[in-house]
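U., I forgot to send this yesterday:
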Amino acid sequence: MDKLKNKYLIIGLVLLIIIGFIVFKSRNEKKDSTNKENVIKYNLKLNIDYKENLIFNKYDVTLKLGKNSELLKHGKKVDLDYQLEKGTYTIYFENEDDSSIKNEYKFSIDDDLNIGLILNSYFESLDVKQAYKYKDSDLTEDKVIVDFTSDDLEVKNYKEVVKQLENKGFTNISTEPVYDIVVGITQEESVKKVSIDGSDNFKKWSIVNKDSKVVVYYHMSSEKDPNNKEKEKKAEEKEEVAYYHSSNDIKIAQEGNKGSYAYGRFGKYYDNYIIIDFDNKVFYSFTERNDEDEGLKTSRMSGNLKTNLVVKWVFPDSSGTEKLHFKDNNPEELEYELDGGSLDWVAVDYKKTIGYMKKHTFKKY
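Result:
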């Protein structure tokens, strides 16, 4: 009887141990399951731009990230999404047909992450470059990512570019025409450059404020430049002023016998000037060059520039007569008759010529 009791006792103990083990294991499995459910995973958005070769090295590439594997077709872009735990990872790239041609890219993740990679294939190597990397937390509501360069926007119509920038979130955009088309095939309103906060050399994939100052410069015909009209207006005003005469008055200058006139004739190595002073009856002649500081003057003059001004020179061993008059009745041009023929002179700025004259001493003949 005692033996039978001991037997049942042993069986009961064994059953208790088995039941306890099952309960313990079940609890641990539930705990592990709960822990796995509580593990934080982050989103990785991976953009691969596999550049296309025209002829050679057009092979496909296998991408491996952990247990994930993707085949990257040559010359294609692809967007991949992963969920990863916090940590450091390595992306492996390998020629599908030759495992010796490979490369890798390492990164760490502790937040939702965006990575852009550029892949280039060569005969004996794979080149992997990072185009951009930023966390979602970096791109706050007041920020915008610059996924372009100024060169990317050239040639496009500036209105189209403005809309594109507005769609990206920029809020402080202005435009500025550049009147630089003279001849050629450049289209009006095509973008010349884009600047952000004063620089057109900004980095692609940089993150900037939405209210950064963005200026879109665009080409326009030089004929439409409003400043040209202003210049033309000033030129017309200048034409209405006798800049070559001491009075600046065209009507007085046209009379040819009052005030002072300035004329010049320009050569390769030096310039010649004359000043005709009717008020003081003095005729000045001088040369403007570094080694010349003496001029000539005479009071022997009669007549007027409208018909003929006669100037006589009396030198110690010779003498001569010169005649001057407006060419075609235009005070801005002067015909200067000498013993050996005639020369054409042009009107020059009176004030500047007086300045040249003051650097000379004059001998009277």
